[in-house]
């Protein structure tokens, strides 16, 4: 069965199945067992069939959290829980279940520990704090720009709230600037470089970085253009386009528009 194993179940499971030390780092410095971030993708057809069969019921369990190893007092209220990642347990043996592994820097930066608890985490292990979570965003954005061809300086190590973290350039952008790596590649060109002590905030959609050399702080906020519908040329020899488009010689690119539907007569005011 391909299924997530809850963190509180992983260590005893490993100790009972040939790993006497439980979940410990191997020679790479990391756990050999991939962690999960509970990002689930369901195929709707089989999912609806399963909901019809089970009524959406998932087996419950209790996960108590104690103040210390004596297990005589709870650290927080204990309650019945059920996990969405246990869904495969309800599926028949013929069901196809898989998983995708991503590099940690791109996919995982939880914020769940307070500063005091995070400072107690052994060096080399993730702090999972507000400090490490925010620094992970800057690291990810810096590495993404590196992969797009930008020369981003290496980070420096600093300590905040007792936690040693990598400090990369403070780079952020709004989703409307770039949702995919393809968007970023399209908007970055030439010889661009960003120093470690720099900060950059990108807020607008139609912003392009060309031969940028940044050694300081830069905030770019571009006014959005009103684009509406645009007519784009299409060569009739371009077989990649449908025949009905080729014979017209153009296509209409519906970039932005305002659409209102009125089911009753009357007077209406449009704003947009």
From TrEMBL:
Signal peptide annotation: none
PANTHER family: UDP- GLUCOSE PYROPHOSPHORYLASE, UDP-SUGAR PYROPHOSPHORYLASE
Protein name: UDP-sugar pyrophosphorylase
